From TrEMBL:
The keyword NAD does not apply. Keywords: ATP-binding, Cell inner membrane, Cell membrane, Membrane, Nucleotide-binding, Transport. It comes from the Bacteria. Belongs to the ABC transporter superfamily. The lineage of its organism: Bacteria, Pseudomonadati, Pseudomonadota, Gammaproteobacteria, Alteromonadales. PANTHER family: PUTRESCINE EXPORT SYSTEM ATP-BINDING PROTEIN SAPF, TRANSPORT ATP-BINDING PROTEIN. One of its GO terms (cellular component) is plasma membrane. It is a peripheral membrane protein. InterPro entries: AAA+_ATPase (IPR003593), ABC_transp_ATP-bind (IPR050319), ABC_transporter-like_ATP-bd (IPR003439), P-loop_NTPase (IPR027417). It comes from Glaciecola punicea ACAM 611. This is Peptide transport system ATP-binding protein sapF. Its main location: membrane. It is found in: Cell inner membrane.
Length: 262
C-alpha cells in the first residue's frame, strides 16, 4: 500500500479570553501522529470540544501548528503536476462557504486562476470536467448558491475541493446539514470518487453509522488527544475506552429508538 500522508507529533495550543475580566482559556491539541495510505478513509470521532474540527483545520493548512510535521508523500507524476494541491477541505455548511455574490463558475475559475498556471481555455476545460465529475450539469457554472439545493451545494463544495487535484480531502461534518436521501447520494458519490481517483479522506463526524459505512480506520479524540485508534470495524465492535463505548452505545440506542417509531 502506498503511503501518502505522515502526521507526526502534531500540536497546537490555542489561548483565548471568554470575557473581559476572565483569565485566558487554553486548549492544547496533540501531540497527534498517524499515517494514511492511498484510497484510505480515516474517521475522527469524539464529543463536542474534543478537538476534531481543530485537527481538520490544522491538517488542511487553515491553522499553523505549534509543532510537529505534516508530510505529504508524492510520486513523480504528482510532483510534476502544475496544479496539484495535496490537501483540500470541505466545510460543514457548504452554503455559507460559497460567496453568494459569485456564481459557481466564477468561484472555480478564480480558484484555478490564483493557484495554477492554466490558461483561459484550460481553466474552462478543467471546470467542465470537474462539474461532470461531481454530477453537476454544465449549466451549474452560472448558478449562485441560493439557486442550488442542499445536495447541489454539497457537490459544488466538493467540486471546489477537487478542482486543484488534491490527493487528500479533509471533510468536517460534510453530511450534518443534509436530509437522509441527499446524505446517501453524497456518501455514494464520495465512495465513487475515492475509487476512481484514489483519494484519501479525513472524515470528521458524529454519525457512527456513516463512520462504520465509509471509513477504514477510526481515531477517537478526547480533550485534544487521540485516546483510541484502529480498524473501524474492530474499534466499534470492541471499544476499549469508556468514551468510545459511550459513543457506540449512544448510536445503537438512537437506532433502536428510531426503529421502535417506524
Amino acid at each position: 500500500m502506498t503511503k501518502i500522508l505522515c502526521v507526526k507529533d502534531l500540536s497546537y495550543t490555542n489561548s483565548r479570553k471568554t470575557g473581559l475580566f476572565s483569565a485566558p482559556r487554553t486548549f492544547v491539541l496533540g501531540p497527534i501522529s498517524f499515517d494514511m495510505v492511498k484510497g484510505e478513509t480515516i474517521a475522527i470521532i469524539g464529543n463536542n470540544g474534543a478537538g476534531k474540527s481543530l485537527t481538520a483545520k490544522v491538517l488542511a493548512g487553515a491553522i499553523r501548528p505549534s509543532s510537529g510535521s505534516i508530510t505529504f508523500i508524492t510520486d513523480e507524476t504528482s510532483q510534476q503536476s502544475s496544479h496539484s494541491h495535496p490537501i483540500r477541505m470541505i466545510l460543514q455548511h457548504s452554503s455559507s462557504a460559497m460567496n453568494p455574490a459569485l456564481s459557481l463558475g466564477s468561484v472555480l475559475h478564480n480558484t484555478l486562476k490564483l493557484n495554477t498556471r492554466l490558461d483561459e481555455a484550460q481553466r474552462q476545460e478543467k471546470i467542465k470536467e470537474t462539474l461532470k465529475l461531481v454530477g453537476l450539469l454544465r449549466d451549474h457554472y452560472y448558478y449562485y448558491s441560493h439557486m442550488m439545493s442542499d445536495g447541489q451545494q454539497q457537490r459544488a463544495a466538493l467540486a471546489r475541493a477537487l478542482i486543484l487535484d488534491p490527493k487528500i480531502i479533509v471533510a468536517d461534518e460534510p453530511f450534518a446539514a443534509l436530509d437522509p436521501s441527499v446524505r446517501s447520494q453524497t456518501v455514494n458519490l464520495i465512495l465513487k470518487l475515492q475509487h476512481e481517483l484514489g483519494l484519501g479522506f479525513v472524515f470528521i463526524s458524529h454519525n457512527i453509522g456513516i463512520v462504520r459505512h465509509i471509513s477504514d480506520r477510526v481515531l477517537v479524540m478526547d480533550k485534544g488527544q487521540i485516546i483510541e485508534a484502529g480498524r473501524t470495524e474492530e474499534v466499534l465492535a470492541d471499544p476499549k475506552e469508556v468514551l468510545t463505548q459511550k459513543l457506540v452505545q449512544s448510536h445503537f440506542s438512537l437506532v433502536e429508538r428510531h426503529a421502535s417509531l417506524v
